[in-house]
Design brief:
alpha+beta; five-stranded mixed sheet; 5 helices; 25% strand
């Protein structure tokens, strides 16, 4: 996957999430799962998977906020709402953050948005890479549905694999 990402011919916005933010977000996720100790996470079915998905979403939103919305961001919103999802605008267009780890292609959700911003997250190093954006009409053409399961196809368009087509956010 990293080889394909290096083919992007424009600047990638990279951000490192501070360790203190990771600790706070991890405690929020444990609270959502009604766990008091990180060691109990391994005992709970799909607990680690929930934590990873939660961190992917939070890291992506934090990095996008820092880059394009506002330098200040209240992490406490993640504590209050288990399924909190921010709304974003880029160039006055409704934007969806499409995020993934470095081991998987991004899964493109169905929805009412005009622009998709592609973000990759390394959970171990707490780094985010904001690659750029694509308009929805182009994204639909470039999304591959062959390996999409029937269950995933209800809420998702498919997987995105054409990183050379991504536009730089600075040009938006």
């Amino acid at each position: 996957m990293l080889k394909e990402l290096t083919q992007v011919d424009h600047e990638i916005h990279k951000y490192k999430i501070p360790y203190a933010v990771f600790i706070k977000l991890r405690s929020f996720a444990l609270n959502h799962l009604n766990l008091s100790n990180i060691n109990h996470l391994r005992d709970k079915f799909e607990g680690q998977d929930y934590l990873n998905r939660f961190l992917l979403k939070c890291y992506s939103e934090i990095a996008f906020n820092k880059a394009f919305q506002s330098e200040t961001f209240d992490l406490e919103i993640y504590k209050k709402y288990k399924s909190y999802k921010q709304t974003f605008k880029l160039a006055d267009k409704k934007t969806e953050l499409i995020f993934s780890d470095f081991e998987n292609y991004p899964l493109i959700p169905k929805g009412d948005y005009e622009i998709a911003t592609i973000i990759f997250v390394n959970l171990f190093s707490r780094e985010t890479w904001i690659l750029g954006y694509l308009e929805m009409d182009i994204l639909k053409i470039l999304t591959k549905t062959q390996s999409l399961s029937p269950i995933l196809s209800r809420n998702n368009l498919g997987y995105f694999k054409f990183f050379k087509e991504i536009k730089t956010i600075n040009s938006c």
